[in-house]
């Protein structure tokens, strides 16, 4: 199949979170299966060595009458063997960050990604790449399925093209004033209640859910949760209406980047047979984090500092947990109030808690390798990647049993034989605290059993080669549906 894979961030080029990891691994896995894949993303200032990108051409996106058309350039780099088509428009993409600065979203994000959505399909035609599947990801690209069914409905080039929308995070929906989206007259000039939020606002994700031929969430549990009022981020009805077209496909883990045996970013490599060497990674982590070097139990956490990641469950009980003989390292950037609270706690427990306000991939690898447990008490988690990395590194995940976390980690207390970590259900700080204490006692009192669970975790595999087959099946189902909506 010809697959046009559209994403706002791709690991190795530009990344703020897990979407980028998937937008690298999935296209590469599709390519390995023999598909012809093109990735399309913005030509951000942050892309390393972007001046080396080849120049494909310059095109102009027609916009709403009364506004100027948008002239842009198209460049190309490669990701292994996969061409990465880069849309260049400096006004929108030559910025210090991808979507926000100082935790404030750029006010023209709607305008930027409306333009990007229009340009992606125009470029496919200009470069003569006729996609069977246009694969969109999250709100940034969720207007594309609508364009295929409106602007391009009777266009011969896209006659047999079908669209798929992957939902990596349904909490971010992209809600913008309709007037801001002048780059796409289909949006600005027609009133479509189904994709509106109030009278003046368009919800990008709703639009994608309405128009995409198939939709998938990044885990089976998250797909089910999206249909519920509690887990549907206010869009349960929209997902329910498309329930026969919604799938749940678990992400794979990229073991080329995340394998303690070969990882070049950790000080000592280890595997199941050489687990004793892992403690040297702990000592390196303690040194890097400014904690005393010791063999105390180490609890790590790496994440965007947002409510989603369960900081509001952790922060109220962290001081109670820190009275025990242990260490905690938290790495993350995000909401200033959460950063401030962590900094305060670190001052109160300087030998036990290190908070590093950083976005640092090498440090994330060191936390995975140097910790005994990894914290993911998320309120919701579409899939989660860090728990998969943790399993591979023999670092037992402590999770809230929600979304993809629940699909990938087996709780010790409920299924000891198959266990790979610890989990709790209630979104309550005390439920987290008692699980943390369970894990701590387990580590201290049952070292042999801890080692057995650790080995079991390390042997667990979530392979892209498995997930990609489910994507293929969904593509085939999409190609079987007519182009009418
Ligand atoms: N401070 C920091 N320093 C270094 N690295 C950091 C970092 N903060 C985060 N990261 C890295 O960013 C990635 C985060 O991935 P996740 O899947 O855990 O979450 P995210 O919520 O961004 O992704 C969304 O999309 C993915 C992909 O589908 C879903 O798995 C997930 O549930 C959904 O919320 C990991 O590779 C992690 O190491």
Automatic annotation (TrEMBL):
Catalytic reactions on record: [(1->4)-alpha-D-glucosyl](n) + ADP-alpha-D-glucose = [(1->4)-alpha-D-glucosyl](n+1) + ADP + H(+)
- NCBIfam families xref list: glgA, PRK00654.2-2
Give one Pfam family, short name only: Glyco_transf_5
What the protein does?
A: Synthesizes alpha-1,4-glucan chains using ADP-glucose.
- What does the sequence similarity comment in the record state about its family? Belongs to the glycosyltransferase 1 family. Bacterial/plant glycogen synthase subfamily.
* GO MF annotation, one: alpha-1,4-glucan glucosyltransferase (ADP-glucose donor) activity
Pathway-wise, it operates in:
Glycan biosynthesis; glycogen biosynthesis
Enzyme Commission number(s) of this protein: 2.4.1.21
Q: What PANTHER family does UniProt report for this protein, alphabetically?
A: ALPHA AMYLASE DOMAIN-CONTAINING PROTEIN (PTHR45825:SF11), GRANULE-BOUND STARCH SYNTHASE 1, CHLOROPLASTIC/AMYLOPLASTIC (PTHR45825)
Question: Out of the domains of life, which is the source?
Answer: Bacteria
According to the entry, every stretch annotated as the Glycosyl transferase family domain falls at 294-440
Name of the protein in question? Glycogen synthase
Q: Which gene encodes it?
A: glgA
Q: Which residues form the Starch synthase catalytic domain?
A: 2-239
The UniProt record gives the binding positions of ADP-alpha-D-glucose as 15
Q: Which EC class is the enzyme in?
A: transferase
Question: Which keywords, in A-to-Z order, does the entry hold?
Answer: Glycogen biosynthesis, Glycosyltransferase, Transferase
């Amino acid at each position: 199949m010809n697959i046009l894979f559209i994403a706002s961030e791709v690991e190795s080029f530009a990344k703020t979170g897990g979407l980028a990891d998937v937008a690298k691994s999935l296209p590469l896995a599709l390519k390995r299966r023999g598909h012809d894949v093109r990735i399309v993303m913005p030509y951000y200032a942050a892309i390393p060595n972007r001046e080396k990108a080849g120049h494909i051409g310059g095109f102009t996106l027609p916009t709403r009458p009364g506004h100027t058309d948008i002239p842009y350039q198209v460049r190309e780099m490669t990701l292994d063997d996969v061409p990465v088509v880069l849309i260049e428009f400096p006004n929108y993409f030559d910025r210090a960050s991808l979507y926000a600065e100082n935790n404030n979203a750029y006010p023209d994000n709607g305008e930027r990604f409306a333009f990007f959505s229009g340009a992606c399909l125009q470029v496919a035609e200009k470069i003569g790449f006729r996609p069977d599947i246009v694969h969109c990801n999250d709100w940034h690209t969720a207007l594309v399925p609508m364009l295929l069914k409106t602007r391009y409905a009777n266009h011969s080039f896209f006659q047999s093209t079908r669209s798929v929308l992957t939902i990596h995070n349904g909490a971010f929906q992209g809600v913008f004033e309709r007037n801001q989206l002048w780059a796409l007259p289909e949006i600005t000039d027609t009133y479509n209640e189904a994709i509106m939020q109030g009278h003046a606002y368009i919800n990008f994700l709703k639009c994608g859910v309405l128009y995409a031929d198939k939709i998938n969430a990044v885990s089976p549990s998250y797909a089910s949760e999206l249909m519920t009022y509690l887990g549907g981020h206010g869009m349960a009805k929209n997902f329910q209406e498309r329930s026969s077209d919604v799938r749940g496909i678990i992400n794979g883990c990229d073991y080329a980047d995340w394998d303690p045996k070969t990882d070049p970013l950790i000080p000592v490599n280890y595997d199941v047979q050489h687990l004793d060497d892992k403690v040297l990674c702990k000592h390196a982590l303690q040194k890097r984090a400014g904690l005393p070097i010791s063999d105390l139990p180490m609890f790590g956490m790496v994440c965007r500092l947002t409510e989603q990641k369960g900081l509001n469950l952790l922060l109220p009980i962290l001081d109670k947990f820190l009275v025990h003989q242990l260490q905690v390292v938290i790495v993350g950037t995000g909401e200033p109030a959460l950063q401030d609270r962590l900094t305060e706690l670190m001052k109160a427990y300087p030998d036990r808690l290190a908070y590093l306000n950083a976005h640092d991939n090498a440090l994330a690898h060191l936390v995975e390798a140097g910790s005994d447990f990894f914290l993911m008490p998320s309120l919701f988690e579409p899939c989660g990647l860090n728990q998969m990395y943790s399993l591979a590194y023999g670092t037992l995940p402590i999770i809230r049993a929600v979304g993809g976390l629940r699909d990938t980690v087996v709780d010790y207390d409920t299924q000891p034989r198959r266990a790979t970590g610890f989990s709790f259900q209630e979104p309550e700080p005390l439920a987290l605290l008692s699980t943390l204490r369970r894990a701590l006692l387990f580590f201290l009192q049952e070292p042999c059993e801890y080692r057995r669970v650790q080995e079991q975790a390390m042997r667990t595999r979530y392979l892209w080669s498995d997930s990609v087959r489910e994507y293929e099946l969904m593509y085939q189902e999409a190609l079987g549906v007519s182009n009418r909506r």
